[in-house]
Amino acid sequence: MRHPVRDFMDRSDYQLTKEGQRYKRISLLHLYGIPGSGKTQIVRKLAQDFPFDCKKSELVVKHEMDCSGDCVDIKKGLQDLAKQMLKHNLLCKKVAAEEACSGLDKNHTQTYMELLVSASVPILIVIQDPPKHNQDLLEEISLSLEQMESTELIHIYVTSHSKRALADSQVCEKHEVGGLTRAEGLKLLNPYDSSEEKNCAAKIIDNLSGSPLGLNAVKAFCRICHITYCDYLKLDGLKGYREISLELAKKFGPSYKHVFEAIITLLDKEEGVLSKMKTISMFHHGYIPRSLIGNIMQSHRRTVSSADPDSICLNNKVDSGSFIDRIADFTFCNVGQGANVANVYFHKLVFFGSARTFKKLGEARVLSAFEKSGLEYCVTCKQRFEEKGKFALDEKHGTSFEICLKPF
Question: Are 66 and 128 in contact (CB under 8 A)?
Fold first, then answer.
């Protein structure tokens, strides 16, 4: 699982969901709602508190799959979970595990779920933004859970934008996650104790439909600029990005014009941050390796203070660490944990907005920008993420060529 949730604000959606899960022996939970509403934060907090009973188990298995960048197939993720449990001697029968995993290729889930039950430990599986091609598999998992007796703590949490991502069933609980209430939003923004400032804060909450992502961006911007929320409302929006604002509003709802503006306004305020995020967004497929962020930081440095490779590598680590900490402080990203500690996960609206602003440059200017930054490029057929420092780009990110990292 990723790092614990920082500065989590207790909210009604979380309490309602947690109470519904506390006494469940086998559960399939589906949280759905528009991006930026706080689904990920809620499910990560639930995962952090799992299991919920007072008698904490000595051993708990937690496995997360973030499919937002189409990099993760749920079948492969479940097969990897079984392999890891075998590796740590939580599953005794290797042959049975291999048969159960091979059955997933044909969407046969009953044997696999029984395999997990045989481990006799609480198991939590978190699936974020499952791809459409895995919808049949999720329905089979739901049917398998219906046929099982409540013998072990098996919880599966799924987050998505659409309610239709998971079919209704007897074991599936669905909760729509909306924005923060006005009272919760005011608690987050913490305006000065004046009626005018509180009214302005309330207006911002309404504009953003209570989006925690947008509200955190506004709060950070006002803190950095030393302005009030009333001053923020007087700002003249984003010049040059209105087309993207309207595109987001059409896709996710009217409030996302304001959410996008809050995000880009904040990134643009910090020197060099928006241009770095534009570059990062071109390589982001669900996540981006920390080492690549270090190379990107190097490409954005105006001068190279030392030609010594060790010094350059150290500067890359320092710069990438500072950058990641800054973005995480805005709640725009979080860092992987355990086997994924070297990966950084940016919120989809953040890298989507950054990528869309980069797309305005046009492909020719993008190529020129990469040439100047010290990154080589080569035009190839559309490919997905590859190992050995190659990252494929596709039309979702504004272009269709592959960027190959030039050794530094």
Answer: yes
